[in-house]
Design goal:
By secondary structure, this protein is α+β, with helices and mostly antiparallel strands. It has a single domain (36-150), classed as Methylamine Dehydrogenase, Chain H, CATH 2.130.10. It contains two helices and eleven strands. The chain has helices at residues 2-22, 116-119; strands at residues 40-46, 49-54, 57-62, 67-72, 82-88, 93-98, 103-107, 110-114, 128-134, 137-142, 145-150. The strands form three sheets. It has a four-stranded antiparallel β-sheet, with no helix packed on it.
């Protein structure tokens, strides 16, 4: 009777251990983000894509194939704290600005960082509040005034 009970307890413990080993679906050396995404900062639409920026990440939803893609610092962004988002149709790229003045340009899967405002020795507010794209130029409304990016 006692031997049978010990076998049953051992089987239960082994089962719990085996199911616990299956719970992890992230490989060693891989990362999975758990970033808050409840507050949208900016939304843009172009073509079949709807893009939403939150403080730590960017979401894009393709209305044709119904796919959702999340991008953030783990996937290659240069910073956190998104403050503005725009789409430059002339170049086919998204402009992503951060609250510290850093800028990322996204063209497909490629991310190009422009840290000029962030690295400047200027004192004070470097936040980029809004982006207005006109043709091949992007005008940035910043905490210190207006700026122009492009040719």
């Amino acid at each position: 009777m006692i031997v049978q009970m010990k076998k049953q307890i051992l089987m239960v413990l082994l089962s719990i251990f085996a199911f616990g080993m299956q719970a992890q679906n992230v490989a060693i050396g891989q990362f999975r983000d758990h970033l808050p995404c409840t507050k949208g900062i900016a939304v843009n639409t172009y073509g079949s894509k709807v893009v939403c920026a939150t403080a730590p990440s960017l979401f894009s939803f393709d209305t044709e194939d119904k796919s959702l893609k999340r991008m953030n610092k783990v996937e290659g962004f240069s910073d956190l704290g998104v403050s503005a988002l725009a789409y430059a149709a002339a170049y086919g790229l998204e402009i992503l600005c951060y609250s510290n003045g850093n800028i990322d340009l996204l063209k497909g899967e490629q991310i190009i960082n422009i840290p000029d405002i962030k690295r400047s020795s200027m004192m004070g507010n470097k936040i980029i509040n809004h982006i207005c794209v006109e043709g091949s130029l992007a005008y940035l409304s910043c905490g210190f005034g207006f700026g122009k990016v492009g040719n």
